[in-house]
Amino acid sequence: MAITPLGEALLGGLLDSGLRVIVSNRALPDSEVQIVGAALALHSEDGEVQLRAVHDLSLAPGESDVVDEDRPTASAVVGVEAVLRILSRQQPLLVDAYAKVEAPASESLARVEVGVVAIDGDLRPEETEIPGHPDLAVFARTDG
Q1: Residues near 23 by Cβ (< 8 Å), separated by ≥ 6?
Q2: pLDDT-based confidence at 8, cuts 50/70/90?
Q3: Residue 19 sits in a domain of what CATH number?
Q4: For 31, which DSSP code?
Q5: What is the model's pLDDT at position 14?
Q6: By three-state DSSP, how is residue 87 classified?
Q7: pLDDT of residue 103
Q8: pTM reported for the whole predicted model
Q9: Which of 16, 113, 125, 132 has the most other CB atoms within 10 Å of its CB?
Q10: Nearest-CA neighbor of 67 among 103, 115, 118?
Q11: pLDDT at site 1
Q12: What share of the chain is helix, strand, coil (3-state, %, to 5)?
């Protein structure tokens, strides 16, 4: 069976324009909070939504992982939603936390960081307190 080659320009462009999503655990080192899963929705400017799910994370405080650089989108990503599954020694032991980030008008996203962070004062606009965990927030923000 013959193929129709896509060519170097198209394939190389995927390497230049892909989105990187980094999942980070910025909880305090002694908190024993772990991120054990992540579900992502990548919203492209053409209206397409690509879904990713990572079930085998085990991110301790101070750790991070890139979870979706393997499948670049054909058009620019303008929004990312994330649900992070968090395991902690507090009640509830297992909780899902939601965060989202959108690109400013007429821009796209190149790097996004989602994760959990220790609350050390006032919440930043991109942070939301995790119910049942008053010392922990979930966040989504552009990174770089």
Answers
A1: 35, 38, 54, 57, 59, 64, 65, 66, 67, 82, 84, 113, 114, 115
A2: confident
A3: 2.60.40
A4: G
A5: 65
A6: strand
A7: 93
A8: 0.85
A9: 113
A10: 115
A11: 84
A12: 10, 50, 40
